[in-house]
Amino acid sequence: MKRRTLIPLFAVIVVVVGCAQVSQIATQVAVQEGHIDQQQADSINRTVEATLKAWSDVTPEQEHYIGRAVAATLLATYPPVDDQLANRYLNVMGQTLALFSDRPETFGGYRFLLVDSDDINAFACPGGLILVTRGLVSLCENEDALAAVLAHEIGHVAGKHGLRAIKKSRWTNVGTLLATEGARNFGSEELAQLTEELEGSIHDITQTLINNGYSKDLEREADEAAVAVLTSIGYNPRGLEAMLLEMEARWQPSGPGFMRTHPSPMDRLADVTPAIQTVEPLGDPPGPRQLRFETALAGILK
Amino acid sequence: MSRRRSGAIALVLLIALSAIAAQQLSVQVRETKLRQRPSYLGAATTALAYGTRVDVLETRGPWRHVRTESGQTGWLHDSALTEKKLTLQSGDTDQAVTADGDELALAGKGFSEEVERSFREGNQGVDYRWVDRMSLWTVTPEQSRQFLDVGGIMPREGGLR
Question: Do A195 and B118 touch (CB under 8 A)?
Fold first, then answer.
């Protein structure tokens, strides 16, 4: 085997052994203190090793309940816009776009909701609940631009970016809890611990969504995913460019919403330019497309 | 490359391929539908619930042609499937799915409906009313098709995954 192939293999082994060691230390302490016997400890170590090492091992079902809790928490701060026509339009467009993504199916499916805020922002909760502010939608001049916004958020969901915001220690705690649970049902203590871990996870995600933002790399990944989805479905991916230029025109380095959580629009545009530079310019959308955009969002665009 | 090494590689490939041929997968989403062709715009036939086991007959891109234990066949997207073994407990709903053997009982465990209930009790400020309402906002393949048609949006050949 060549050295080049040995290095990543070695890295993988180190990572796996590293995770297993955390569990082994914990179970050894539990054995010494008489909480469990050696056989149970071995079983726990096997299951932790086999399953919950990181965000990427989370089942879509768990992701679904994390996402519901994140959305419910955000909705306490960002009230929904009760506009049936607009929300229906967002859902038909968004759910159709999601069919063209790398991950068309999540446990509970993709859903979109307008929220009442002047901030220019959107929140992709794990599992596919996506909240979009009135401020962001009113920035869109046409359906292609709005499709770019939704496709970017779908990219965050498909890439499980929200789950990556959860601290690693929480996965270790949940993994160990689930392993010790084994064949018996949860007692109230385990349930309380799991609820605490859920609360912590929601805190990690909402902090990222509202205050800290994702890394520049994850934003680029979401933009690239958006270009791929827009291209597959048949929208002009320059809709993303149009959105970024609108955002740039409003950019203040210490401003609220996306300005706090996203890289500068021009940096993002530079990253996606190679993928869209050969695409024809974004012309006027077909009449019926623009008509339905303006009709559905009449209460939002004003 | 030596003959012995290429022989070893061939053997590994053979084992890997035979494992793929006998692949059995589980539905990892709440509900998915068997489709007559490998496309979301194709007609959906039978709905399959979380945990349903299927045998893979053929792979085409991200689509799997599968057969259920009751003998129904159709196409499923791989985002709806997992290699993890999930077994439905009789008479239970989605939160009561457990894993076999040494595998962790992840399904229905961890962050589950039960934990959500506990979370809601302890956090009266959070608002699940709209989260529940949103879950009802489904879009059918027919509605997606119509949306594309009316908007003059033409998917690329093979663009739909």
Answer: yes
Are residue A115 and residue A232 in the same domain, yes or no? yes
Shortest distance between the Cα of A110 and any Cα of chain B, in A, equals 9
Q: Do the domain assignments include residue A169? A: no
A64 CA: distance to closest CA in chain B (Å): 9
Give one DSSP letter per residue of A215-269, joined into a string. -HHHHHHHHHHHHHHHHHHT--THHHHHHHHHHHHT--TT-STHHHHS--HHHHH
Q: How confident is the model at residue B29 (pLDDT cuts 50, 70, 90)?
A: very high
Confirm whether A274 is domain-assigned: yes
pLDDT reported for residue B42? 78
The answer as to whether A197 is a domain residue is no
Within a domain: A122: yes
Are residues A95 and A143 located together in one domain of the fold?
yes
What would the pLDDT profile of B81-118 be if each residue is shown by its tens digit?
998 876 554 434 444 344 443 343 456 667 888 899 99
pLDDT given at position A125: 97
Q: Report ipTM (2 d.p.).
A: 0.81
A61 vs B112: CB contact, 8 Å cut-off?
yes
What is the dotted CATH code of the domain comprising B23-150?
2.30.30.40
Residue A88 and residue A24 share a domain: no
A3 and A143 part of one domain:
no
B chain contacts of residue A64, beta-carbon cutoff 8 Å: 30
**A10 vs A64, higher pLDDT:** A64
On whether both A258 and A112 belong to a single domain, the answer is: yes
Q: Tell the burial category of B105 from Cβ atoms under 10 Å away from its Cβ (0-12, 13-18, 19+).
A: buried
Q: Distance (Å, rounded) from C-alpha B149 to C-alpha A5? A: 49
Note down the domain range covering A23.
1-50
Which of A96, A174, A291 best probes binding to B when mutated, by most B CB atoms within 10 angstroms?
A: A96
Domain match, A27 and A153 both: no
The reply to whether residue B127 touches residue A106, judged by beta carbons under 8 angstroms, is no
A contact residues 139-198, partner B, Cβ 8 Å cutoff: 143, 174-175, 178-179, 181-182, 186, 191-192, 194-195, 197-198
> Nearest 5 degrees, angle CA B101-CA B102-CA B105?
80
Tell me how far apart the alpha carbons of residues A17 and A29 are, in angstroms, rounded to a whole number. Answer: 18
Same domain, A153 and A106: yes
Contact A198 B125 (CB under 8 A): no
Of B123, B135, B156, the CB nearest to A232: B156
For chain A, the domain total comes to 2
Measure B70 CA to nearest chain A CA, in Å: 23
Are A149 and A132 in contact by the 8 Å Cβ rule? The answer is yes
**Poorest-confidence range of A99-108, A257-266, A290-299, B7-16?**
B7-16
